[in-house]
Design brief:
Layout lengths: L2 H5 L13 E2 L15 E3 L8 E8 L5 H10 L3 E5 L1 H6 L1 H6 L4 E5 L12 H19 L5 E2 L8 H9 L4 E3 L3 E4 L2 E5 L8 E5 L4 H15 L2 E2 L26 E2 L9 E2 L1
Parallel strand pairs: 1-9, 2-7, 3-4, 3-10, 3-11, 4-5, 6-7, 8-10
Antiparallel strand pairs: 8-9, 12-13
Helix pairs in contact: 2-7, 5-6
Bound molecules: zinc ion.
Length: 254
């Protein structure tokens, strides 16, 4: 069965779990207009779409790979260099529309580092990701979501165009949001942990109940002079994939 065929699946509506609005330190949107690197925790859009991101890469499981293949969602991976290097084959097997940002080389808390140290860690992650995947990433997520002005300047100097935060997380089967229930344009954070497959299934239930669909980030967050697609590691360069949005249509994206 092809991915295209899988896209035309039945949509089941289930009762949504209540995702309480939290007042907590966490995701936010900065007015970054004067900076080199914009910061996003959601992408303004009227389409009923969300953006799925998965971090770290230290504990990828076969079950998660099977779940990702079955779902066929567009994903942006924010992997630490060492995790990507150690698990290259694993990430190669994922669907061809899984894209890559970077999550630094060493996964250190950047706000405790000097500008030069931050730059080394961020540029190192960019360089490593380009060397392994063949594509230089333009998206960045700081470890722990902690960053300061030096982080933005350093990331900009490494060629990063956007710092991606999040407005919702999934841990186990718990979907947590900031500022109200899941809504259009939200960036959602998961991790390559042993329970990722379970988290993906929980998220699928939430999205189905909310009438939201995963979409490819580079269709909505584009930069002048850059190609739309930042492809996955090796396979799929000549393949067309199928979009999740609009739903149940399945048009090719090359
Ligand atoms: Zn991390």
């Amino acid at each position: 069965m092809t991915f295209c065929m899988r896209r035309v699946g039945a949509v089941l509506f289930v009762v949504a779990l209540v995702t309480a609005s939290m007042v907590a330190p966490g995701p936010w949107v900065l007015d970054a207009s004067a900076r080199q690197v914009d910061v996003w925790s959601r992408i303004p859009t009227t389409d009923p779409v969300v953006f799925i991101t998965i971090d770290d890469g230290f504990r990828p499981t076969p079950e998660a790979a099977r779940q990702l293949e079955m779902l066929g969602w567009p994903i942006v991976n924010f992997l630490v260099s060492g995790a990507l290097g150690r698990n290259t084959e694993y990430f190669e097997q994922l669907t061809p529309w899984v894209l890559f940002g970077t999550h630094t080389r060493h996964h250190r808390q950047l706000i405790n580092l000097s500008y030069d140290e931050q730059r080394e860690d961020i540029c190192g992650g960019v360089d490593d990701t380009e060397r392994i995947t063949g594509v230089r990433p333009v998206w960045f997520r700081p470890p722990g979501g902690d960053f300061n002005d030096d982080t933005l300047r350093a990331a900009g100097s490494c060629g990063i165009r956007a710092l991606l935060m999040w407005r919702a997380t999934v841990n186990g089967t718990t979907v947590r949001t900031w500022g109200g229930p899941l809504k259009r344009g939200d960036i959602i954070l998961l991790h390559y942990r042993k329970d990722l497959a379970e988290s993906l299934r929980a998220l699928q239930r939430e999205l189905t109940a909310a009438g939201l669909y995963p979409a490819q980030l580079d269709h909505y967050l584009r930069f002048p002079g850059l190609p739309r697609s930042t492809r996955a590691i090796s396979s799929g360069e000549d393949e067309c994939t199928t979009m999740w949005w609009p739903p149940l249509v399945g048009y090719p994206y090359c």
